[in-house]
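Hi, here's the filled form for the chain we discussed.

Project: internal
Contact: R.S.
Residues: 181
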Amino acid sequence: MSRDGLAAGTTRAIVAEAGMSLASFHYAFASRDELLRELVHRVVGHELSAAAAAEVPEGAGLADCLRAAAAGYLQHLEREPGAEQLMLELALHSLRDPALRPLARQQYRAYTAAATRLLEQAAAATGATWRRPVPELARLLVALVDGATTTWLVDRDTAATQAVLDAAVGLFVAEHSELAR
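And the returned structure, exactly as it came back:
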């Protein structure tokens, strides 16, 4: 699905590529929808791991932490563009199918939870506090990253995307945080 898109990810195509039987697929997953839920969980986990794995220098400030996380995510995006395109495709497809709509909600709840953890960890590591509720800021961060992801998938301009993320972090931190006293 990362390579050929969501529509190409039929259970028959998946088992053919995996070299397994359809019965084996259904032993692991009750349905394709269950596989898609697991896919969301794993991809969001990879995204968060990429953002969290970024090296942050000793004594770094809040903006430095968030810039490092953004750079880590951008490296992930460059390595796994098909996975990120699939996630966008999956969200939009799920919104059109009432049976799958909960999957899109689950996907964005997972993004928001990951952003919440990232913001809380960055604040704790730097002694900063957020002026607005972290869940609200996490939703804003998800919207920023979604826009940057979509734009990068269209133009593949890493330098421009990095510059936009750097500027967004600067504005985000200046507007919404303060150092602990």
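Let me know if anything looks off before we file it.
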